[in-house]
Amino acid sequence: MLGFLERHRLIKKGLASGKVRRRQSENELTQALEAAILPKCFIFAGFIAGLALIIFSSADSQPAKSFLIGLLITATAIAYLWISHPKTFAKNSRVLLIFGVFLVHLTLLKAALFLSGRVLHDLQFGELLVPFAFAPLICSVLLGRELGLYSAIFASLWGWDVLHDIVETPDAFLFMSLICGFIAVYVTLQVRRRSRLIRAGVFVGLATWILALLFQIIPIVWEQFPTLDWTTIAKYSLVAIAGGIFTSMLVGGSLPLLESLFEITTDISWLELADLNHPLLKRMTIEAPGTYHHSLVVANLAEAAAEAVGANPTMCRVGAYFHDIGKLVKPEYFTENMSPDRDPHLELAPTMSALIIIAHVKEGVDLALKYKLNQEIIDVIQQHHGTTLVWFFYKRALQQQEDARQGGKIMNIREEDIPEVRDESFRYPGPRPQSRECGIISLADAIESASRSLEKVTPQRIDQLINDIIEKRLEEHQLDECDLTLREIKLLGDSFKFTLRSMLHSRIAYPGDSSKDAKDAPATKTPQRESGIPPVSAA
């Protein structure tokens, strides 16, 4: 409260700005709950209570035995998640998502069989309508292939445990659930459009239908072929296929809510964010066109490199689009947007120039929060420079210090009166890249910027430039925290070299009209480029 009053007093005197920079909300209680053991125990206890309710409310002849088996499956699922996916297990929100989806999955299985038995008086309808792929689809799309397979296995085991006394062929039910779950995960390895979910539902429905024929859930006795009830068979077949499609539609409707609640961005959402008509990107085309073009090139470099190492290429593309949005605040101070006849940094001290350059990270975070961009994009904005130096202005400051020291000898100025140059004043605040995607964008950004300074573009110079930048980042330990292995960094370098060579390839000099060339030819012997832009001199 006292701080607020003091700030208000300074603002009235004109000694402080009335603007307040947006900050990311860092709720300490939320962070503590995310990693605490007690909430995790409550999640597991809630799941066990829900499992008990489903088992003891069914017509199971031995509910206690089924519940004990369910407890053993639960213990195995928890242990497997802890051993094989420690990062997921450490986040209580992810554990809540997974086990919450499991509980909804089992509830839907029970509801489908209950309604078919009580309302339609035909359990076969329920066996064909059950959403086998519900949990695998959600976990695969939101959390990845490995957790999708994990959910397919354990959702099938729990489903068998809950319904083995209700369905006529429990072993066939277990087998169908496993196969349909695996197919759902396989078909959704890369879901970049919502229509792919419907396609997955069609495949799951077809698999359900084929397995139902094999296990005689749809009764076809080929020896009685002429007298088969084709109407009933057609009805059962339609229900089997429609069940898979309905499941995919249910998952598609649930995804936006789950993404919002658990702060997860799927490839579908990344593609929606990749729309170049976003207000920030449209502003960039007008206010900072050089930065906009730079961001597009970085996006191409980062996307191709991410594909080479198995990272998320769509996230890299979108992150690269927005990584420099902070330059919109003072675009004229960045070399790609400068007017050719004016360099504003010539009027500033190197420390002030570095301060403006470094500030584009904080300004970018401010704009990202204002436009409600997701946390992954904010991370890219914060981390794409790591803790590197603004080297150009740092060297200029050192040169000015040396000039002052030489002049001071003539003017008898004491050494301690010469301002000290500290590298902390010229260093980005960080943090260093924390994910593979942030590391890739960081390298792509540095490589694209440096490639613009090449006086003569050759494949050898491109290769040397990229090798030097990667080696420099490794020496400065900028990639130590982003889980990129040395093998992956080599693959990234190869990808950057290939993409940059393709972008900066040379053009054929086409001969023009000889009389016109003789009249308009410049003094240089360098041929005009195809685009008509005058050649750039080596100087």
Mind sketching the topology for me?
Elements: H1 2-13, H2 28-35, H3 37-56, H4 63-84, H5 86-90, H6 92-118, H7 123-129, H8 134-143, H9 145-163, H10 170-187, H11 195-214, H12 230-262, H13 267-273, H14 279-287, H15 289-309, H16 313-322, H17 350-370, H18 375-383, H19 391-411, H20 436-451, H21 459-475, H22 486-503, H23 514-520
What's a concise summary of this model?
The protein is mainly α and 539 residues long.
Shape: elongated
* Major beta sheet summary: none
Instruction: Name the average pLDDT.
Output: 84
| Number of DSSP E strands | 0
**Separation, N- and C-terminal Cα atoms:** 59 Å
Order of helices and strands: HHHHHHHHHHHHHHHHHHHHHHH
Count of separate DSSP helical elements: 23
Beta fraction of the residues? under 5%
Task: Indicate the low-confidence ranges by residue numbers.
Answer: 514-539
**Taking Cα atoms only, what radius of gyration do you get, to the nearest Å?**
31 Å
Please state the structural category: mainly alpha
Report helical residue fraction.
55-70%
